[in-house]
Design brief:
Elements lengths: L1 E3 L8 H11 L9 E3 L34 H14 L17 H15 L5 H6 L3 H24 L8
Parallel strand pairs: 1-2
Helix pairs in contact: 2-3, 2-5
């Protein structure tokens, strides 16, 4: 979690998160960003950690968009299992929800088992949402089917006229 006291009082968590995404790698962005008017201080002038609000209880409420097809539903369920969260929407970012490299490898192992396609951690880093990863998986499934059909062409007999 990160606690922020901005100069601009109109700063939104989503704006701050977007700013950080443009400056640092995703794994360095805190899962929770909390905007405060001022940091609570103890009698010694140091930050009073016990007086800070609990990060998960503060912040913007976001709408969770439900899966639209079977692949998105399977992916959302796998995200929930791996990240140990209650619910995941199709636009939720794996890394914003607390995912990291070790959980990414666990997720990929489950995806390989579920979808039986060639998918790797790079795919997750490039498409970290349920929607993006589902699209990538669908593309790989389509490519696999097309490749299999191309192999069938070798068995055809060529007839010259």
């Amino acid at each position: 979690a990160a606690y922020v006291v901005p100069k601009n009082k109109d700063l939104k968590v989503s704006s701050l998160r977007n700013f950080l995404k443009s400056r640092v790698p995703g794994y360095m962005i805190p899962q929770s960003l909390v905007i405060l008017e001022s940091l609570p201080l103890n009698s010694n002038g140091k930050v009073d950690l016990a007086a800070l609000p609990i990060a998960n209880e503060v912040g913007e409420v976001k709408e969770i968009v439900s899966p639209r097809n079977d692949n998105e539903a399977k992916l959302a369920e796998i995200f929930v299992r791996v990240l140990e969260v209650e619910q995941v929407g199709i636009y939720d970012n794996f890394f914003d929800l607390g995912g990291h490299s070790l959980l990414a490898t666990k997720l990929i192992a489950l995806l390989l088992e579920e979808f039986k396609i060639d998918i790797n951690v790079i795919d997750l880093f490039e498409a970290p949402t349920v929607e993006g990863l589902a699209k990538r998986i669908e593309d790989k499934i389509t490519f696999k089917e097309v490749s299999r059909n191309d192999d069938d062409d070798d068995e055809r007999e060529i007839i010259k006229i």
